[in-house]
Write a structure and sequence with these properties.
The protein is an alpha/beta fold. It has two domains: about 1-20 and about 95-225, HAD superfamily/HAD-like (Rossmann fold, 3-Layer(aba) Sandwich); about 20-90, Orthogonal Bundle (DNA polymerase, domain 1). It has nine helices and six strands. Strands 3-2-1-4-5-6 form a six-stranded parallel β-sheet, sandwiched between helices. α8 (about 175-185) links the parallel β4 (about 170-175) and β5.
């Protein structure tokens, strides 16, 4: 059963690299500008969420609610993105999270395809900065889909581009909405984080350094055999 794995499809932030701090700082700058309290704890709610939906969540924290026009919303989201883009220019291959290079090498050695499914519109730029863009047969970001996670579209689109069967794909995520998307796509879900947060994942690891091909393949085979 191990040989039946056709592709690994990764999330970007929190899995391959961690630009979450830059997202936080950019959103914090927008919140400060609007006089809205924005904490690191609340920032966790924005993980795996599209830019516009993240902005709506941020604005929901305002003490004095006001209505924003569509143009004003676009301008705020665009301003946040420009702040984020300036920050991620600092990203280098040294920012690849522990264990990822080793796992990618093993996946490639076995002839298994690689895909990326990200909610970020900056996925191509970040992957290029990391030196990984050419290694992935499919990179799907929010600009290529109509529905964001937890909808499975981003993972299904990556599988379609790779020409693989979703049932034989491993999805790797660090967000609850991402794991929901993987499972809805009919894929095997590997979650990075606290076990309690991911009751529906097929395999949960605390950190990326624990990602091991043999362990994932064995768990996939066991699930495929109904064990």
């Amino acid at each position: 059963m191990k040989e039946q794995i056709q592709a690994f499809i990764f999330d970007l932030d929190g899995v391959i690299t961690d630009t979450a701090e830059y997202h936080y700082l950019a959103w914090k700058a927008i919140a400060d500008e609007l006089g809205i309290e924005f904490t690191r704890a609340f920032n966790e709610n924005l993980k795996g969420v599209s830019r516009m939906d993240s902005l709506k969540l941020l604005l929901s924290q305002a003490k004095d609610r006001r209505e924003y026009t569509a143009q004003e919303m676009e301008e705020l989201a665009d301003r946040k993105n420009k702040l984020y883009q300036t920050m991620i220019e600092k990203v280098t291959p040294s920012d690849i999270l522990p264990g990822i290079n080793e796992l990618l090498s093993e996946i490639k050695r076995r002839g298994i395809k690689l895909g990326l499914a990200s909610a970020s519109k900056n996925a191509f730029f970040v992957m290029e900065r990391l030196g990984l863009k050419s290694e992935f047969g499919a990179i799907v970001d929010s600009s290529k889909i109509a529905n964001n996670k937890p909808d499975p579209e981003v993972f299904l689109k990556a599988a379609e581009m790779l020409q693989v069967d979703p049932a034989y794909c491993i999805g790797v995520e660090d967000a609850v909405s991402g794991v929901q998307a993987i499972k809805s796509a009919g894929m095997f879900a590997v979650a990075i984080g606290d076990r309690e947060a991911f009751p529906h994942a097929d395999l949960v690891l605390e950190r990326t350094s624990q990602l091991d091909f043999a362990q994932i393949a064995t768990a996939f085979a066991s699930a495929a055999n109904g064990n």
